[in-house]
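Here's my example:
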Amino acid sequence: TVGYKTGGGAKGNVNAGTDSRSFVIDTGAGQLRVTASVTQPSILTAQDLETRAVAVFALTADTREAVDISRIRLTHLGGMPATKVTQVLIYRDAGVAAALDSADTLFASGTYTSAVATLNGSPLRIAAGDTASMLVVYQTGSALTEGDTFIVQIAAASDVSGTGAISNLSPQVVGVPASSRAITVRGRYPSVIHVMPADGAMFLAPQDETGILPIRIQFSMPIDTANIDTSTVRLVDAGGMNRTDSIIVVDSRTIQ
């Protein structure tokens, strides 16, 4: 609010009069940019009955004013049904980037209805020119289907609600839609996917020879290639003999 005076007095002296006026400068709403954070959870998998960080969204207020965020709406897309998510939570990521830890502050939690979760929380302030990293966490139910994939999305400008600290207006939300990376469902326990020879097949070992029978088994493991290699997997047979030297990591979830 700016005040000024008008009226009598010396020519050009605006302070000489007794009449006063005031007016308000309307700065307009600030801008809030939504992006999928550069740093996403390092393990892009989900399993039955676990609590897992699945996405990080960056909310950036422009330099015009701070913004108080009060609501974020998430959309679940992909082959894994949203009904398999028993609870979805959003934290302000303040500790290890893209990982849920004790330094993170819960903003809001809720559930999906028709693959949409509207999460209302206590106002979370983002300072002018600052960025808040919002960590999305899933709690999953049972009987997930291995191989299903999903993404988490802030789909529209109306999916983020807040108030500008100076203008008292809703911010102009830009950058949407913003989407997470694809998350793949993997079994919690190893499962056999291929055996050669097939179960029940006849096999005649060469006479008068001792050696290793050429039996090949492939099975799925809840692993990521970035975290394991043949030196970090150890297999033993029924007699306790180490068979690790015969392991091949076929792809991101298959060991042979």
User: Anything to note?
Assistant: The longest strand covers residues 67-78.
